[in-house]
Amino acid sequence: MGYRSRLHREQTGRCLLLACSAVCFCTVVLITIFIFAQGIPVFKKVPLGAFLFSTNWSPSDAEPHYGVFSFIVASIVVTTLSLLFATPIAISTAIYLAVFAKGRKAAIIRQSIELLAGIPSIIFGLFGIAVIVPFVRTAFGGNGYSLLSASLVLAIMILPTIINISEVSLCAVPAELKEASIALGATDWQTITRVMLPAARGGITASLVMALGRAIGETTAVLLVGGNAPLFPESPLSMGRTLTMNIVTDMSYAEGVHMSALFATAMLLFCFILVLNLLVRRKS
Amino acid sequence: MNRNTTSRLAVCCVRILSATTIILLVAIIGYIAFRGLWKRERYVSDVLPSFSAGQQFVLSSPRESGLEHLSWFALREMAMGKVPNLRSVTGVNEPFSLYVTDDSLPAFLAAMDLTQTQLVRRTTLPLRPENGSLVVSLEAVPHERNVRLEDKVLAVDTVVAALNGNRRISLVANEDLKRLLAGNLRSWKELGGPDLPVVEAADERELQTVRGSWMVMDAKRWRQLSGSDNAPAKLDVEGLQESRNLSWGYLTGRTVESGKYGGIGTIVVNTFFLVLFTMLAAMPVGVAAALWLVEYAKDGLPKRCIQSGIDILSALPSIIFGLFGLLVFVQLCHWSFSLLSGTLTVSLMVLPTIIRTSEEAMREVNPNLLEASLALGATKMETIFRVVLPASRRGIVTGMILAIGRTVGETAALIYTIGSGTDVPKSLTSSCRVLAMHIYLTITEGQSTDKAFASALVLVLLVLVINSAANRLIHQRRH
């Protein structure tokens, strides 16, 4: 084969590879453009303030209202609660894996975390309907389909995210720090709380932020257990609708301004995820 | 408290909390497996489960038919050719055919109170009855399910079954019925009815005259009586039936009525198609992108843009991908809800996984190998194909398996892209649901919780196998 043709092939190949690697970037740009192009027109009809801070969502009324404040609050309540439930368990597991775990026990825990991470969200939803909803119903009253159930399901789902990233950052704490602390006569627990956790603070925060992102974007599982009522959530036990649930529920029949309002909801979600992503990057 | 004790206590707490993950995993998988294998089905029948033995013949039906029990009325209607298919009894939409063996024919006719001319009958028994057929014989047909025949009727004085306030006691639970038959109930009030004494009546005339009475009689007599104008009210019995859920028939059968009946054979095939096409679309692009990032990218704006693109794409929730797919593939490209739209949407979603894993594997390739190849006069492209790709194939396969795991379990991105057709797609642009979507739709449309659990068990097993394979590969690579 001639030198020229080899060079030619080399260059074509290189361009092809570049094109392929640009796919992700282009997709992000296209997603942004398309969702914003569909979402922004709603603000011609509904002022931004009314959209964000009104709790009245009645798209099918004669005089339709599009206020997503209830959904924002529901999303915040669900994610906060799920983080509250998941963090103690997840951080403990991360500490255990990073500090104490040896041999088969650790291997079993690691395996189960990996498997837990792989279980599809629809399965969590099904489990939520059959186990968590009746549990909430008997323990706290109400009909069980509530933001609390949704956050319990989410708490299980985000465990692997928090554990994996926190464990990595706990393992990355220099051994000298740990050894110095032990040499000074500190107990295991003192070493963990005063040396390792502060040293791994950045990574742990990043893991929580990632988990937050996963929780706020989760759709199917919360949709099945959350109750999906477009009302302002008065307590964690009331039925509620998160941003993602709102998109999925109405999308099947929405038209015109209503459709546009749904894309604006997606826009909100998108911005939220972008901000979280930037936060994580700033941290690491 | 001593600080050593505090430390020990705290460490103990940490250990206990860390075991929660295992407990949760076992609980979830165990529960799904249990519900997937066993179903508890509530059913309502106006006849009682048979208490008396002494049936003269055995009813058998194929296992896939789902037929568990049959009342004398239904059997009689079937024998008279009034029932065209098993749909009304079990939901299997097959045409119904009844086979009666010659030796059991006289007993059957006598019990059914029929003459031979009334009977719609086939003469030869097929070697293996098809779905939708019912065999009446003296001995059970091997390899087929025996169907229980229920032969008693509980009838209640109309006063009792009538309204009390707004509540009708036409439905009693199985346990209450046992108490009723044992004579433990004194008043209908205990079942939510009017305050009337429970009285046992011997025949229908007595039932009409004694207020608050009930009676049990055999099916034949009931048939004669129920023809009369003022028939007593029937008391429906609510029963709970436990049986096997996930079966070979379910796994291979065709879906009937959006998952209410039938199996998931076609849906498993659809899932396979989705995975196949997604990998065909995403693997080349993902691996190529990883190659560019490892072998060609220099620090600078393009690399930074591409990397943040991958970061953001991996962080986006799947519903956003679903919306994008809806806008671009479904609406803009006019591919409607189809396999093609779904495939491309999921491909975009799994790209970051493939790129990341492949990239990691390629960075681990020994640089000496690369330099040796270049020194021998190979071009960079030749080096990539002959050295880098073979050396990092294990990592690439791991990425592929992880991506398959994600594809199989995806729902939110597919709700508005892949559609809900239950048949195997004829072309790329026909709609077809996959396993995860099928579970979602069966629950949200309220078709059948038991079937949803059976499908969920299949999905969980699939995902567990896929992820275990990926984990094994990852660990092998590390050691």
Describe the SSE topology.
The complex is a heterodimer of chains A (284) and B (479).
Chain A: H1 3-39, H2 42-45, H3 48-53, E1 57-58, E2 65-66, H4 69-100, H5 103-118, H6 121-140, H7 147-171, H8 175-183, H9 188-199, H10 201-217, H11 220-225, H12 243-251, H13 256-283
Antiparallel strand pairs in A: 1-2
Chain B: H1 3-37, E1 38-45, E2 47-48, E3 58-61, E4 69-71, H2 72-79, E5 97-100, H3 105-112, E6 133-137, E7 145-150, E8 152-156, H4 158-161, E9 163-164, E10 167-168, E11 171-173, H5 174-182, E12 199-200, H6 204-209, E13 213-218, H7 219-226, E14 233-234, E15 236-244, H8 248-252, E16 255-256, E17 261-262, H9 265-296, H10 301-315, H11 318-332, H12 339-363, H13 367-375, H14 380-391, H15 393-409, H16 435-444, H17 449-478
Parallel strand pairs in B: 4-7, 5-6, 11-15, 12-13
Antiparallel strand pairs in B: 1-15, 2-8, 3-6, 3-7, 8-13, 8-14, 9-10, 16-17
Helix pairs in contact in B: 1-17, 9-12, 9-15, 10-12, 11-12, 12-15, 13-14, 15-17, 16-17
Would you mind describing this structure in some detail?
With 284 residues, chain A is mainly alpha-helical. Chain A has 13 helices and two strands; from the N terminus they run αααββαααααααααα. Chain A has a two-stranded antiparallel ribbon. By secondary structure, chain B is α/β, with parallel strands linked by helices. Chain B has three domains: 53-150, Periplasmic binding protein-like II (D-Maltodextrin-Binding Protein, domain 2), CATH 3.40.190.10; 153-244, Periplasmic binding protein-like II (D-Maltodextrin-Binding Protein, domain 2), CATH 3.40.190; 250-478, MetI-like (MetI-like fold, Orthogonal Bundle). Chain B has helices at 3-37, 72-79, 105-112, 158-161, 174-182, 204-209, 219-226, 248-252, 265-296, 301-315, 318-332, 339-363, 367-375, 380-391, 393-409, 435-444, 449-478, and strands spanning 38-45, 47-48, 58-61, 69-71, 97-100, 133-137, 145-150, 152-156, 163-164, 167-168, 171-173, 199-200, 213-218, 233-234, 236-244, 255-256, 261-262. In chain B, the strands form five sheets. In chain B, strands 2, 8, 12, 13 and 14 form a five-stranded mixed β-sheet that branches. In chain B, helix 6 (204-209) links the parallel strand 12 (199-200) and strand 13 (213-218). Chain B is elongated, with a radius of gyration of 32 Å. The two termini of chain B are 45 Å apart. Chains A and B meet through helix 1, helix 4, helix 5, helix 6 and helix 7 of A and helix 1, helix 9, helix 10, helix 11 and helix 12 of B.
